[in-house]
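Name: Large ribosomal subunit protein uL22
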Amino acid sequence: MSKPKAERALKDNEAQAVARNIRVSPQKLNLVASMIRGKKVATALAELTFSHKRIAIDVKKTLESAIANAENNHDLDVDSLVVSQAYVGKAMVMKRFHARARGRAGRVEKPFSHLTIVVREVESA
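Structure predicted for Large ribosomal subunit protein uL22:
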């Protein structure tokens, strides 16, 4: 009596992980996401480990989650995984006010972002 199960949006050799409402601007997060696009998973993890960007820690957690999803949920080989997509979306923006001179207020915007990482298994040649 329930509705039919939705079709899987990804291919059979792909797995993804999504991190929502990360407290960083999409522009800054996209700088880190672009570092790992198209790279092998081991290389991407090494780059994120030694990156000086604060948000690289959260990107690394999301990448590790995508790897675990590929291994446990879809039975993919971890050694042949590649980061096929890493894209950033805008989330909410908190509006705050900062006191300024002569009783005025300056607007402070605190943006949030969504991060989606898709890993794909490639067959070795």
